[in-house]
Automatic annotation (TrEMBL):
Membrane topology label: Multi-pass membrane protein
InterPro entries cross-referenced by the UniProt entry: ADTRP_AIG1
Record's signal peptide: 1-19
Source species of the chain: Operophtera brumata (Winter moth)
Reactions accelerated catalytically: 9-octadecanoyloxy-octadecanoate + H2O = 9-hydroxy-octadecanoate + octadecanoate + H(+); 12-octadecanoyloxy-octadecanoate + H2O = 12-hydroxyoctadecanoate + octadecanoate + H(+); 9-hexadecanoyloxy-octadecanoate + H2O = 9-hydroxy-octadecanoate + hexadecanoate + H(+); 12-(9Z-hexadecenoyloxy)-octadecanoate + H2O = 12-hydroxyoctadecanoate + (9Z)-hexadecenoate + H(+)
Keyword Transmembrane helix: yes
GO cellular component term of the entry, any: endomembrane system
Protein name: Uncharacterized protein
Length: 236
């Protein structure tokens, strides 16, 4: 079972790392494009940032398989295990589900709002699925096959909200520098609608944080109970 987990984590790390590499190396959109600002590079997209988060998370998970511990409540929880659990809870799970659900929802309404057809010659279908489909599949499989202890809700949500707010600021820095929006959907909105969209998006991603926490508690109820009891004993 440990070997299966290691192979799965390595597959995730290699897949998302290669997706990032291919995107950086071969997906080159002309700087004269009327739909994509050149400023900010690949880091202007939440999709790409999330793929980097997934690469980091699955790499951490693989290292934890090798030198850490997957026990529900080890006597001395390794630092790498603590970091892995925190990254999953506060970023890897909620951001992946948010990116996947939001992308495909907007794509279903009008793909020009999120991935214009003019980019099809540059962004291959397989890469689109790595970045927007596999991120959801892999993180859900990870939730179901590996136990982690969620941090205090306020702490986990504060990390997530800080990350998302920083990204919103970054999107506006790009708009200020180029006069272009990273996502075409933002061009359609006026300022009141943009603010409402940001508020909805933040609430939406926080909902996914709570979903991950609840699913983890439901799937791993026995392990969560053991960890809580172990923590109380140590406190005494």
């Amino acid at each position: 079972l440990k070997m299966h987990k290691l192979l799965f984590h390595l597959l995730g790390a290699i897949q998302f790392a290669y997706g990032c590499y291919y995107d950086c190396t071969y997906v080159i959109i002309p700087s004269t494009s009327s739909v994509v600002p050149s400023f900010g590079g690949k880091l202007k997209y939440l999709t790409f940032i999330n793929a980097m988060i997934q690469t980091a998370y699955f790499t951490l998970a693989a290292l934890n398989d090798l030198i850490g511990s997957n026990e529900p409540s080890p006597r001395d929880k390794p630092l790498i295990r603590r970091v892995k659990d925190l990254v999953f809870s506060s970023l890897a799970f909620p951001v992946s589900i948010f990116v996947g659900v939001t992308f495909w929802a907007l794509y279903a309404v009008d793909r020009e709002l999120i991935l214009p057809r003019s980019l099809d010659d540059y962004f291959p279908t397989w890469l689109n699925h790595v970045m927007h489909t596999n991120i959801v599949l892999f993180i859900l499989i990870e939730l179901a096959t590996s136990f982690r202890m969620y941090p205090l809700r306020k702490f986990g949500l504060s990390i997530l909200c800080t990350f998302m707010l920083c990204y919103v600021v970054w999107v506006h820095v790009i708009w200020f520098r180029t006069g272009m929006w990273v996502y075409p959907v933002l061009k359609v909105f006026n300022w009141p609608l943009r603010i409402a969209f940001y508020g909805f998006s933040l609430s939406f991603v926080c909902t996914f944080y709570s979903l991950g926490e609840r699913l983890n508690a439901a799937i791993w109820s026995k392990e969560v109970e053991e960890t809580v009891k172990s923590g109380k004993k140590k406190a005494k």
